[in-house]
Amino acid sequence: MKYYLIVGEASGDLHASNLMKSIKAADPEARFRFFGGDLMSSVGGERVRHYRDLAYMGFVPVLLHLRTIFANMKLCKRDILAWKPDALVLVDYPGFNLSIAEYVKKKSDIPVYYYISPKIWAWKEYRIKNIKRSVDELFSILPFEIDFFEKKHSFKINYVGNPCVDAVHDYLQSGRVGRASFLSANSLPEKPVVALLAGSRKQEIKSNLPMMLSAMKAFPEYQPVIAGAPGIDKEFYASYLKEGASILYGKTYELLSNSHAALVTSGTATLETALFNVPQVVCYALPMGRLYSWLKRNFLKVKYISLVNLIAGSEVVRELVAADMMVQNIKSELGKLLPEKGKERAAMLKEYSRMTDILGEPGASERAARKMVSLLKNADKAQV
Q1: Is 328 exposed, middle or buried, given 0-12, 13-18 or 19+ CB atoms closer than 10 A?
Q2: What pTM was computed for the model?
Q3: Could you give all domains of the chain from N- to C-terminal order, each with its CATH number?
């Protein structure tokens, strides 16, 4: 069968690539066409556009690239109908993907599957109308979404577990790189490491990384190592590297598994850091931070922004967001988590264990793939 997939960022590329592998295991005749990244390309199929051509963040960047965004959307819609896949598989990225879903539903009978459901429980809850109208099957990776979609909005979903659990489990099973080998192989000095995961987009990095590096100066016995974002070249990081940091590309899991602590911009990375049992501070600077903080208190529908806290249902990791994101606060919170300094390290690690139990066992990609293939095969039988 033919599967058309659309992702809009690096984490989507990772999870979609694992889903594609699982689809191939359940459907050996599977063929893929996609808007995606290098990891998806390594699985096979034909890439129409790289996700870097889609990933614009913030009002001004989006406004400046509106022509490109609309051109890609038009191309995507046309290409899906021309290729006539057996299923359209959307991965997160709701601003783009929900528009595609609506168009495809109006213009064809192609089933629309949404893997990694839009986070409408946090904002833009009105999008539930679009989802009910345009999505045939929703595949959730967060356990608290079951109540949100099924109880609150009477929309049945498929909870399949979290693909981050799969990815970290697979890495650890393949053989962890020891600390000495890690430092030597990457030409790093013999000092304990604090990982800096400052986001996957340039604006995120510009907003967060300078303050992270400034805070690290208070801990000279530790070395900051940046996880380089896929698709952003080393030249972009040049000014930050002058601050005494090192950078590694394509080795985020290796970095986390050898780090004593981490400063992490909110997103999938907060969950991955927790799954590696690395104590962390969530750092997310925003333009007009005080305004955002006021909006969060009065309008945002969730108490937390990090997946760790949302899944656990309590403040496991400290979130420094908007007006709270200051160098002094980073120093204070990081200091509490370092082995010889921190008093809260053990408590955080205990809560990580509880969060992992809530998420469940590995196998999200396989469960989602088997369900998708089963639905398509049953639909074929019904038409015979």
Answers
A1: exposed
A2: 0.83
A3: 2-161+363-383 (3.40.50.2000), 167-359 (3.40.50.2000)
Could you give the angle at which helices 163-174 and 268-275 cross, rounded to 10 degrees? 40
Block means of pLDDT (10 residues each) for the chain, 384 residues, are 94 92 97 96 96 60 59 93 98 93 97 95 91 97 95 97 92 88 95 95 91 96 94 88 90 96 92 97 77 51 86 95 92 92 86 95 96 91 58
Only one residue has tokens 């408590």, namely 347
Give the number of other CB atoms < 10 A from CB of residue 276.
22
CA–CA separation, 3 vs 124, rounded Å?
28
3-state secondary structure the chain: CEEEEECCCHHHHHHHHHHHHHHHHHCCCCEEEEEECHHHHHHCCEEEEEHHHCCCCCHHHHHHCHHHHHHHHHHHHHHHHHHCCCEEEEECCHHHHHHHHHHHHHHCCCCEEEECCCCCCCCCHHHHHHHHHHCCEEEECCCCHHHHHHHHCCCCCEECCCHHHHHHHHHHHHCCCCHHHHHHHCCCCCCCEEEEECCCCHHHHHHHHHHHHHHHCCCCCCEEEEEECCCCCHHHHHHHHCCCCEEEECCHHHHHCCCCEEEECCCHHHHHHHHCCCCEEEEECCCCHHHHHHHHHHCCCCCCCCHHHHHHCCCCCEEEEHHHCCHHHHHHHHHCCCCCCCCCHHHHHHHHHHHHHHHCCCCHHHHHHHHHHHHHHHHHHHHC
- At 317, the amino acid letter reads V
